[in-house]
Amino acid sequence: QLQFVESGGGLVQPGGSLKLSCAASGFTINYRAVGWFRQAPGKEREGVACIGYRGRITYYADSVKGRFTISRNNTGNAAYLQMSSLKVEDTASYHCAVSSFCNVLAPLRSDDYDTWGQGTQVTVSS
Fold first, then answer.
1. Is 67 in contact with 83 (CB distance < 8 Å)?
2. Are 82 and 69 in contact (CB under 8 A)?
3. Which of 99, 100, 125, 109 shows the shortest CA–CA distance to 44?
4. Burial class (CB in 10 A: 0-12, 13-18, 19+), 37
5. Judging by beta carbons within 10 Å of its beta carbon (0-12, 13-18, 19+), is residue 94 exposed, middle or buried?
6. Of the candidates 53, 22, 15, 56, which has an alpha carbon nearest to the alpha carbon of residue 37?
7. Are 80 and 71 within 8 A, CB to CB?
8. Cβ atoms 78, 24 nearer than 8 A
9. Radius of gyration (C-alpha) of the chain in whole angstroms
10. What is the DSSP code string of 21-35?
11. Number of H helices and number of E strands within the chain?
């Protein structure tokens, strides 16, 4: 089965940090862009960040720019999202997926991605 497995979520206080991981199972990410999305209950899915297949092209949503960093390890067949200065509004289920491209000029579109992970929950609360 082709899928991502996300991990690293948890409960953190505002201003804290977490690092999320997504490990590819049954496929390689070597030649595909990776995106992170998040979705809170009752809210639409929001694109957070994407990274090109060599790790040199990145895009961040304005809401997370300067606070989150996306990275990848093609040898380890995994991608990561380092989150710092977390805010209550960052609370959501975070999912990773793959695409043929990372568009640096426009927000991520869910329709451009496939092979979704089941998500890891991030809760920011005092």
1. yes
2. yes
3. 109
4. buried
5. buried
6. 22
7. yes
8. yes
9. 13
10. EEEEESS--TTSEEE
11. 0, 10
- Please give the span between the terminal C-alpha atoms of the chain, in angstroms, as a whole number: 39
Structure-block tokens of residue 96: 């990773």
Q: Which residues pair with 40 in a beta bridge?
A: none
Rounded to the nearest 10°, the torsion over CA 21, 77, 23, 99 is 90
Q: Token pair of 28, please?
A: 């390689």
pLDDT tens-place values along the chain, 126 residues long: 788 999 999 999 999 999 999 999 999 999 999 999 999 999 999 999 999 999 999 999 999 999 999 999 999 999 999 999 999 999 999 999 999 999 999 999 999 999 999 999 999 999
Q: Which residue in the block uniquely carries the two structure tokens 């995106």?
A: 35
- Give the single-character DSSP code of 114: B
Provide DSSP, 34-52: EEEEEE-TTS--EEEEEE-
